User: Fold Mitochondrial enolase superfamily member 1 from Brassicogethes aeneus.
Amino acid sequence: MSTVENLKIISLDVKDLRFPTSLQSDGSDAMHTDPDYSCAYVTIKIATGLEGYGLTFTLGRGTDIVVQAINSLKPLVVGQVVSDIYKDFASFWRSITSESQLRWIGPEKGVTHLATAAIINALWDLWAKLLKKPVWQLLADLEPEQIVSCIDFRYLSNVITKDEALHLLTQGKFGKEQRMNILLEKGYPCYTTQAGWLGYSDEKIKMLAQKYLDLGFNAFKLKVGRNLKEDIKRLQLVRNIIGWDKTLMVDANQVWEVQEAIDWMKFLAPFKPLWIEEPTSPDDVLGHAQIAKALNPLGIGVATGEMCCNRVLFKQFLQADALQYCQIDSARIGGINEILAVYLMAKKLGVKVCPHAGGVGLCEMVQHLQMWDYVALSGTSEGKWVEFVDQQHEHFLHPAIVENAHYRAPRVPGYSTEIKPEAVKAYEYPNGSEWEDMFSKGIFHDPRKDK
Ligand SMILES: C[C@H](O)[C@@H](O)CC(=O)C(=O)O
Ligand SMILES: [Mg+2]
Assistant:
C-alpha cells in the first residue's frame, strides 16, 4: 500500500460514447430491437498524472442521463486520497451509494447505480495500475480480510456474514498457485452470442454459427421470444450446424409473462437448451422461481442477472432457487465491490456464475472477475462460461483476447478499460467525428437541431 499513500484524486471526467450498432442489428433482441452500444466513460486522475478508466454500458439514448448522474457523484470522489479509499473500500462505496439526498433517486438501482459502477470500475483500474497488476491478479493476491473490507455487507447477513465470507475465501486459497498456472496457460472458457442476434437474417445466423464452430466454440446463445415459429426454425438451423453435442442457450430478454415463458419453452425444449435467460421481468424473483420449477424436469435451467439491480435482489434470486446460472454484469450493479458479494453468496449456495458480457467493455472487465473466482474462490470452471461477443474490442487499448473459445488471462496492469483516444474523439456523442459524418449523411437524426 505504501506506493499509493497520500495520492489525491484531482479530477473526474465523463464522456458519452456511442457506437452505431443498430445499423446492422448487432446486439438486437426481442425487447431491445435497435441498440446503439454505448457507454458512459469515466476518467479519474490522481496527482501523479496516472489515470483510471471505468465505464458502464448503455444502449444509446439515456447515456446522457447516466453522465449527469456521474457528474452529481463527482464531488464525493474528487479530493479523496486513494489510499484512504482502498484501505476501507466498503466505507467509500457506502458513501457513494448512500449519499443522503441522491439515494432517494435509487437507492442502489437504475441510473444512480450505473453511475456508481462506472466510477467504482475506474477506481479499480487505478488501484490495479498503482500496484502494477491486472485486476484479476490484484484480487487474487488480496488477503481474504482485504477482500472482505471492500464489501458492504448491509442487507446480506441473513445469507452471508463477513465471517462466512472469510471462511470461503480462506478455503479458496488452497490450490491457488496451481489454478493460476492453469489459467495463464489455458485461459477461461467462453460461449458466444455472436450468431444469435434477433435482427440477423437466417443466412447470417448460419454463416456466423459455422464461423464460431470453426473457431472452436462449443457453446452458443440465440435470442428468442418474438415469434415462436421463427424461434423453432432458427434453433433447428443452428442445431443443424453445431450438432447435438454442443451447448445451446436461449435468451428472451424479459418479454414473457410467467406462464407464457413456461409454455413457450416447452416448444423449444426439443432443441435441448441449457438455459432460458431473462424469461420475464428482471425483478420478478418468485416468477423466475416458478419458471425454474416448471422447466427443471425438461432439463432447462433459468439464467438471469444482467439487469438484476443490486446484491439484495441477487440474494433473493439465490435464496428462492429462482436461478441456476447467475449472470453478474460488470457494469450494472455497483462495480467490483458489490459483485464480490454476489460471487460469495453464489459460492455459498452452490450456484454457478456465468457472467453476462458483450456490451461495450463488458468482456474486457468481466473476464477479470471470473478469473479471480476461478483462482481464488470457486476453484472451478466446470460447466461455466463467460459470454463473448466480438464487438467494439478494436476501440480498447488492451482488448479482451479470445483464442480457441477461451479468454486469455490479461497481463497488462489495470481493468482493461482504457479506450483509445482516437475512438473517444470519433464516437463521443453528438460531437465526435463519426457522428458528425453520420448526421451530415442523414443516417441518424442530429439531436442538436432539436435545441
Ligand atoms: C441489448 C443487448 O444486446 C442484450 O441483448 C444483451 C444480452 O441480453 C446478452 O448478451 O445476453
Ligand atoms: Mg441476455
About this structure: Residues 397 and 420 are 5 Å apart (CA to CA).
